[in-house]
């Protein structure tokens, strides 16, 4: 009997071993043929994830580790294994090719599901999560009024000046209370950036910066805060009370960042969304934004068709609502009814996206630029001298320059300083795409459905690549810039590299990718640049940024949604 049954268990064991071996093989890295990789990582179940996690723990920023690989392997295209059982991720590290992919190859390299998933749970209808097809382009066109120069000049300019002056006054009060000690200042920039974007989106002025200043003045007069004995210790300042919506947006930004950093983003996101705090904040932001949309709809629905057509849009919510109402007029529908659920959601999500994308980015850039001022006292002094020459009223009469003169006076060294800050801050150090079709890059075949990390940093020496391996458009772009690499090195902060010999500013000295390129280029670039300029000018004219004590001056970065400094302390002398 037993002899008869022996072959069956043997076959079962054989099958089990085969299935196990197959399963193990499936979870171990399976390299894409022909693309260089780290051989040791390919032998490990966790692939490159272990090294990446270690680098993240050690430095707070995984991007150096990711883009170092191409240099180690001497290849502009390489692959990494970032999660067991998943396809490899391809890394592309060549400025010309990255710019070409972003500008001309969106049908081959489009929005990655990783990015879509992270945002889709919160903003399913916003343009950011859409693939670069007709629906995306139509939505961008619908909203372009909000980011266009006429709207920015008419609506955003006076508001950004107001909040930038508010920050100057807050710094002045904090400096008095700190009495020579260094103090943390990220919240100043963060809350002011939020109040501006919120005002641009809803047309409702914020008072958090003014309130914070009043609180600091009260604490100084009442001597209610005991400062540390040492002049080199961090001063105690009253905490800025963030508007509720600002805390909500920061909370959602950290949710998105956590999911983007996770090895298994959908699981992380699912877990975060189950948390009661998440649900509570979500309900809060839904009712706030919907309230603004309904108030704008009710107001605009009372206008005559002519008034509606002639109306100057004075906030993003008015833009969204007016354009929906104009579409109703064209279809011969009544203006009175509430919006359909879909129309309401589309306006809602785009407004929320502007709040998310247009808030922390600007505060992070300003924080880096303040660090560059402190780390480079000679360049700070030079910037101040050119600004004082451009705006003599600040020195002779103590008057602040007007917003128009700040924005529209040509000041080459200021433009170079801004450009170099944007380059060196490298706030979005990794752009993510997915191949939408089987394709190739620099002679390497990349199959459909592979996640691709693009390095937009203008600061690493390009590897030698035969021109014949490039696409036609990439070959054609060779002379678009004076250089792709500064022989004096790009690891220094040097605004001068953007100046011609005659001292004029030359934006074509090197490529610029900090706001990405092509059809998916940053939507808020103009607003961000104007706001950066106004804040930088007013800060440098009003304060000397002294060096902060050792231990508070680290230039190390951390990766949240953006690459931001680990430490942001200032020590100021008012001017
Ligand atoms: C210093 C400030 C800023 C920097 C450095 C920055 C950078 C970027 C970058 C690099 C991208 C491209 C991401 C990609 O290609 O995958 C991007 C996209 C985007 N930015 Fe900005 N940004 C800034 C400010 C703003 C502001 C103020 C707004 C809103 C008013 C904004 C709205 C957006 C949106 C909506 C997208 C997504 C575009 C798409 O649909 O693909 N950004 N930004």
Automatic annotation (TrEMBL):
Stored Gene3D superfamilies: Cytochrome P450 (1.10.630.10)
Iron found in the keyword field: yes
Keyword Oxidoreductase: yes
Membrane-traversing stretches: none
SUPFAM superfamilies, A to Z: Cytochrome P450
Keywords, comma-separated and alphabetical: Heme, Iron, Metal-binding, Monooxygenase, Oxidoreductase
Domain of life: Eukaryota
Cofactor or coenzyme needed: heme
Recorded family membership: Belongs to the cytochrome P450 family.
UniProt-recorded name of the protein: Cytochrome P450 monooxygenase
Species lineage: Eukaryota, Fungi, Dikarya, Ascomycota, Pezizomycotina
